[in-house]
Automatic annotation (TrEMBL):
It is a multi-pass membrane protein. It is found in: Cell membrane. It holds the Pfam family TrkA_N. One of its GO terms (biological process) is potassium ion transport. The keyword ATP-binding does not apply. InterPro entries: K_chnl_dom, NAD(P)-bd_dom_sf, RCK_C, RCK_C_sf, RCK_N, Trk_Ktr_HKT_K-transport. It comes from Posidoniimonas corsicana. Residues 107-224 form the RCK N-terminal domain. This is Voltage-gated potassium channel Kch. SUPFAM superfamilies: NAD(P)-binding Rossmann-fold domains (SSF51735), TrkA C-terminal domain-like (SSF116726), Voltage-gated potassium channels (SSF81324).
Length: 332
């Protein structure tokens, strides 16, 4: 039985006792309702009336029964309330300790700073792709919401260096800077870059003029939601069907397909083969739409006779299940 249910039952028993006692006092003594409630309160609280009672025998017996019963019921109910408070604090502390241990064991993960609308969407997408991440949010309500969703959370100020260390930024692969203000995002980017020179930082900016400041502070990429939104709407006007297709790829609920990156490790069987020989379209119903070479060169719509090299990243388009099959077949 849950602690809350037991508390409700205790309070219900106390309410029933109050009702029965007040009615009984009124019937036996003929006093007013107020006097009857008064008798119950001083009896249940064991305050008493005086050293010698002038009450009749039936009233004395009723009083004895109420004292015995109310003492048990009140002690039981108060004990449950105290227990729930203590257990709540203990469970909260244990939850924080568990999260701290899990974060300390993480490496190569993503840190999302800010759990607003952008942060929530990012967390959903990363969770969907089984990618490890930590949410940093100073607002306690938002942090609790993230924890309730099953995410690892550090409930503290992301602009504080100690908070970033607690979230594992020195060991992380990527940092998402998604706070509300541009000034905070610039300061956070600068702090994180000082902690980890090799960290990939993706920062959000509200104003186009902020992009330069974020890059100077150490951001690798800057995302301007207002600019992206405007371009998206322009594409809906000028290229509605192409925009609709891209929207399908970004919304997994509409179509079970998308773009995926597959990096070829050294010694993989695909290394040395050409795009034609891989035959991704014929064997797995996938399209190789691009190749990112190890030196950073991006090749769009690669030539069928282009050989694949170690550390190349294939960008493939197709059904999610077909992509998973391709990965399993070639050990990617």
């Amino acid at each position: 039985m849950s602690i809350l249910l037991r508390i409700r039952r205790g309070l219900s028993a106390l309410g029933v006792l109050l009702l029965v006692s007040v009615v009984s006092y009124r019937m036996l003594t003929g006093k007013s309702w107020l006097d009857s409630v008064y008798f119950f309160v001083i009896t249940a609280s064991t305050v008493g009336y005086s050293e010698e009672s002038s009450a009749t025998a039936p009233v004395q017996l009723l009083t004895i029964a109420i004292i015995a019963t109310s003492s048990v019921v009140v002690a039981y109910t108060i004990g449950l309330i105290i227990q729930s408070m203590v257990e709540g604090q203990i469970n909260l502390a244990l939850g924080v300790m568990r999260m701290t241990r899990e974060i300390q064991q993480m490496s190569g993960h993503t840190v999302i700073c800010g759990y607003g609308r952008i942060g929530q969407t990012l967390a959903e997408e990363l969770s969907l792709r089984k990618s490890e991440f930590v949410v940093v949010e100073r607002d306690q309500d938002a942090a609790r919401e993230a924890a309730d969703a099953g995410y690892l959370v550090v409930a503290a100020d992301a602009t504080d260096e100690e908070t970033l260390v607690e979230a594992g930024v020195p060991r992380a692969k990527t940092l998402i800077v998604a706070l509300h203000g541009d000034a905070e995002n610039v300061f956070l980017t600068l702090t994180a870059r000082n902690l980890s020179p090799d960290l990939r930082i993706i920062a959000r900016g509200e104003l186009p003029s902020t992009e330069k400041k974020l890059r100077q502070a150490g951001a690798n990429e800057v995302v301007l939601p207002a600019v992206i939104g405007a371009r998206r709407m322009a594409a809906m006007v000028t290229r509605p069907y192409a925009a609709e297709m891209m929207d399908h790829f970004s919304n997994h609920e509409r179509i079970d397909a998308g773009l995926e990156e597959l990096t070829l490790p050294e010694g993989n069987g695909l290394v040395g083969q050409t795009v034609r020989e891989v035959a991704a379209r014929q064997r797995h119903n996938l399209l190789v739409v691009g190749i990112r070479r190890a030196d950073g060169l991006m090749v769009f719509n690669p030539d069928p006779d282009s050989p694949l090299e170690s550390s190349d990243t294939l960008i493939v388009l197709g059904n999610v299940q077909d992509i998973r099959t391709f990965q399993a077949t070639h050990g990617l």
